């Protein structure tokens, strides 16, 4: 997974989230917009068939789909998300993501 770990969003400028990250064939691309002690905001672009295997996180996280279609499984419950949909993944619950078709998402994780 490609990761631009340093925050890269221009401050005090209007951006189009879906256009701020590009798809990469056969890959998952991430771009960190905000990285603070209290939380992170990260853009992701998943090519079709790509995903993140089941894992847990110690904090709640919100996923907002900006483009495409994804399956998000939370504690064994598969959910289908399309452009404009969002879901909150509760802390300490196993979750996984899979690109039904290529998709872009904004992940917001609150640590405090």
From TrEMBL:
Coiled coil: none
Keywords, sorted A to Z: Dioxygenase, Oxidoreductase
SUPFAM superfamilies the record matches: RmlC-like cupins
Location of the Cupin type-2 domain: 44-105
InterPro entries attached to this UniProt entry: Cupin_2, RmlC-like_jellyroll, RmlC_Cupin_sf
Keyword Transmembrane: no
MF terms (GO), sorted A to Z: dioxygenase activity
Entry superkingdom: Bacteria
Residue ranges crossing the lipid bilayer per the database entry: none
UniProt key word Cell wall biogenesis/degradation: no
UniProt-recorded name of the protein: Quercetin dioxygenase-like cupin family protein
């Amino acid at each position: 997974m490609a990761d631009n770990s340093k925050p890269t969003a221009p401050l005090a400028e209007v951006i189009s989230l879906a256009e701020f990250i590009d798809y990469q064939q056969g890959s998952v691309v991430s771009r960190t917009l905000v990285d603070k002690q209290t939380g992170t905001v990260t853009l992701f672009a998943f090519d079709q068939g790509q995903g993140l295997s089941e894992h847990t996180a110690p904090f709640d996280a919100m996923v907002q789909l900006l483009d495409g279609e994804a399956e998000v499984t939370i504690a064994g419950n598969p959910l289908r998300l399309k452009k404009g949909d969002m879901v909150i993944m509760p802390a300490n619950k196993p979750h996984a993501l899979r690109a039904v078709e290529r998709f872009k998402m904004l992940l917001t994780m609150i640590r405090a």
